[in-house]
Amino acid sequence: MLKSLVKTFLGLSVLSKAVLANNPSDLEFFENKIRPVLAEHCYECHNSVKKAKGDLVLDYKDGLLDGGETGPAIIPGNPKKSLLMQILRHEIKDLKMPKDGPRLSPVIVQNFERWIAMGAPDPRVKKPSREDIAKAISW
Fold it and tell me: How much is the pTM?
């Protein structure tokens, strides 16, 4: 229930920003700078089809907004309070991602910060199919 209330509040508080954020250049930024990183480094462990470690799904927009066991992954418009940013920066001892790979480059982390600050525009409004995920990662 609390998770649902938080999602509703966050949705209402960023609604106008999210509507403004979904302009073509912002969506292009997502497609070129954010989605490829999610597909390469995150989908294998955090997808809505086969595996969602920590109940976190990153392969569609609501997965990021709903978050997992530790709460919403992002707060659109607020990168400082977004858990995903804290994880990408390795600020939380037990939640450092990518888990078994090297740290993401500072440029990539800055891209995620910029994306969240612009309202986290994301055209992925429904859960992907198994085929969609299979195209993004190899199982």
Answer: 0.80
